Amino acid sequence: MRVKEGLIRLELDTGFGTWVQYSTMKLAIFSDVHGNVPALNAVLEDIARFEPDAVVMNGDLVSRGPYSLDCLRLLQRDWPEMRLQTGNHEIYVLRCVDEPADADSPTLEIDRFAEWAMRQLGDAVEDIRRWQDHWDRTDLPGGASFHVTHGSRLGNRDGISVRTVMKSCPPNSASIVTCLSGRTPIGR
Fold first, then answer.
1. The domain spanning residue 65 has which CATH number?
2. CB 185 within 8 A of CB 14
3. If you average pLDDT over each of 21-25, 177-181, 182-186, which comes out highest?
4. What is the dihedral of CA 98, 66, 58, 39, to 10 degrees?
5. Range of the domain at 160
6. Domain total for the chain?
7. Are 113 and 92 in contact (CB under 8 A)?
C-alpha cells in the first residue's frame, strides 16, 4: 500500500495479475478470531500501528476457542467504534439460543462448539444479535464503493475462489476482495 497525493493505492497480487484500487479511506478488516485472545491482541496491535480510518471485525469472533466472552468484551471496551459483523459462527451461536441442538443433526459437532460459546457468552449473546452481516458504502469520493462481508455476497459460508463462476455472484458496483484463511485473495 502506498499513499500519494491524499489517495491510498492498494495493490493486490491475485495470481492472475495485480488488482489496483485507489481510495481515500484506510480500512482494517479482520476475522476468524474464534475466541483466541492472544491472537486478537496481536492483530489489534498491528491495527493500532496501521492507524486506519475504520476497523471491521468481519465475523467469527466467537466459538471454537476458550475465550469468546473475553474477546467480545475486549473489543467493546478498547475499540468501541469498531464495526462488529456476524460470520457463520455467530449465526451458529444465535441458532443455539433460539433452538437446541438436535442429536441427529449432521451439524452436531459445530452445534456443540456453538453451545459452548453460547454458555461462555451468557447474556452478551444478545449483543451479537444486533450485529449486521455486511457493510456497504456507496457514498465515497469519486463514486467509489465497497462491500464487506464474511464469505461473499453468496453467503457467510461461501467464499470466492479461483473456481467461482463470477456470473453466480450477485451484481454489484463495488470492488470485492475476499481473503480466505490460507488461500489466495481474489479481486474483482
1. 3.60.21.10
2. yes
3. 21-25
4. 180
5. 2-187
6. 1
7. yes
